[in-house]
Each structure stands twice: as structure tokens, then as C-alpha cells.
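Case study: Translation initiation factor 3.
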Amino acid sequence: MMDVAKALQLARDADVDLVEVAPNSEPPVCRLLDYGKLLYLASKKERESKKGQRSTEQKEVRFRPNIGTHDLDAKTRKIREFIGDGSKVKLTVRFRGREAAHQQLGLSVLKRVADELKDEVRLERPPTMEGRALSMVLIPALVKTEKGEEGSPEEKNQDQVEELADAKT
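Here is what the predicted structure looks like once written out:
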């Protein structure tokens, strides 16, 4: 416990600031420190915490049920690029008019893409109908797996991709 005037004099003598760190406590708690350095360290800590956070983007690639082989290959290359960047990819097959009656065509398109990318992706969400669109979400497969871990989530998701490929045959 110290008088405010005495604490201010100590701060001037030491060429530092008197900073109130706990104003709501009884009595209020103050410390002698360099306020500029305190602000710098706080901003540095905030930058470090933001650095660790990575927001994953979700990209969408749209298909039609009767897409050509070359067009499908071009879109698959684009999906590979998105997955390589670490983004989620939503694959959507849009149906128009009477095409909606032939959902198996859309499933076969998604199956072909899943077959082609099965080593690079995991299935986050299986194919589902959303109005007139059939969509599924793929995420990058994690290459860092622990040895000896049986039935890891990555393997289960990989199995789902393979099941999707087998089931739609």
C-alpha cells in the first residue's frame, strides 16, 4: 500500500509509467512499467494468436448432369488446385427441368470426381439433394497420420469416399 504521490514520484525517478492494472479491486492495484512496451507486447501477442488461426475457405465447383469428359477433367484439375491450397470444396450438380428426375446421372458425376480424387480428399458431407441441386463437400486428406492408430477419422472418411465410389457403380 502506497500513497499515489509517492508512487508517481517513484515512476518519474525510474523513468517508467504508473499503470493501473486492477481498477475494480479494493484498493486499486498499480504497477510501475513501461506502458509503450506493454502495448507492444499486447499487440505482438494478438498477432501471434491470429497467426495460428487459419480460416478455411469453401470453394464451389458446379457441374451439370450431362457434362463432357474434357470439361469434367478440367474441373477436376481445378478441384485439385483448391484442395492443394487447403480449401474445402463443395461439388454441386445442378438439375434443370426434367433432369431432376434422373438423380443417378448427378450421382455418377460426383462418383467419377470422387474416384479420381480419392487419394487426395476426404468426404466431409456425402451427396445430398438441396432443392434442384445435388451436392457433397470434400476436404483435403491429412497426410499426418499416427502409425498404429486403427480406424482413425481420416481412414473412415477415406472409406466413405471409396464406398461412395463403389455404391454408385
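For the exam, be able to explain this: Residues 21 and 30 are 5 Å apart (CA to CA).
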